[in-house]
Amino acid sequence: MVESRIARACQRAGRRRDEVTLVAVSKVFPAEAIQEAYQAGLRVFGENYVQEFEAKKPLLGDLPGAVFHLIGHLQSNKSARAAELFDVIQTVDSARLARRLSGSGRVLEVMIEVKLSGEEAKHGAAPDSLAEVVDAVRACPDLRLTGFMTMPPWTEDPEPSRPYFRRLRELAEPFGAPALSMGMSNDFEVAIEEGATHIRVGTALFGRRRRPE
Ligand SMILES: *Cc1c(COP(=O)(O)O)cnc(C)c1O
User: Fold this and answer.
1) Which residue's alpha carbon is at the smallest distance from atom 13 of ligand 1?
2) What is the pLDDT of residues 4-35, one digit of tens each?
3) Which residue owns the Cα nearest ligand 1 atom 12?
4) Residue 212: pLDDT band by 50, 70, 90 thresholds?
5) 143-150 and 179-181: which strand pairing?
6) Cα gap 205→25, rounded to integer Å
7) Contact 171/148 with Cβ under 8 angstroms?
8) pLDDT attached to residue 120
9) Inter-residue contact 73 to 94 (CB < 8 Å)
10) Ligand 1 pocket test: which of 2, 25, 199 has the largest number of ligand atoms within 8 Å of its C-beta?
11) Domains and their CATH numbers in the chain
12) N or C: which end of the chain has fewer CB within 10 A?
């Protein structure tokens, strides 16, 4: 279902399927859900909470080739733990957080989360602070900047997300870090049309979450 939606969107956009990474968002679901998804062929997983994943990770067993992205807001007091648990941190939103993620002894891939909506509850770096955050990440030898991430205001209709996706792509352009993490269950086709390289899909893969995030 999700796979055919991705394939159709790629076809419409004239893009290859392998240009788009499906990040399976397993937050709130138990370790078994990740194991099942792995058995079904998924390799890239997104989690929102450091503590939740800290509890789940030891239960996963050995999943060769699995890659774990942190896609939820990261508080700086959890940065050291996050650097141990995750392979990719999609939600770096300040120079300070970048520096705190550095020095863990592991090389981390990093994306910068950009705040494009005025919503109070949303996190992310302001568009006019991106150069500063990019410089801070690039100054850390153990952080590798791959791209940018954003989350538009949620709407059932995907079209209102399009201008946010387009804006992220335009803002990212000058920095030479090509990954764009954008699009969720409701709007990932539009995100693929606008150049997403990573789509973060939870509900459409795992079903409705019992408790709200
Ligand atoms: C929960 C979450 C998703 C997945 O949302 P769905 O609508 O369930 O696909 C994607 N990105 C972030 C940052 C999330 O918190």
Assistant:
1) 71
2) 999 999 999 999 999 999 999 999 999 999 99
3) 71
4) low
5) parallel
6) 8
7) yes
8) 77
9) no
10) 25
11) 2-206 (3.20.20.10)
12) N
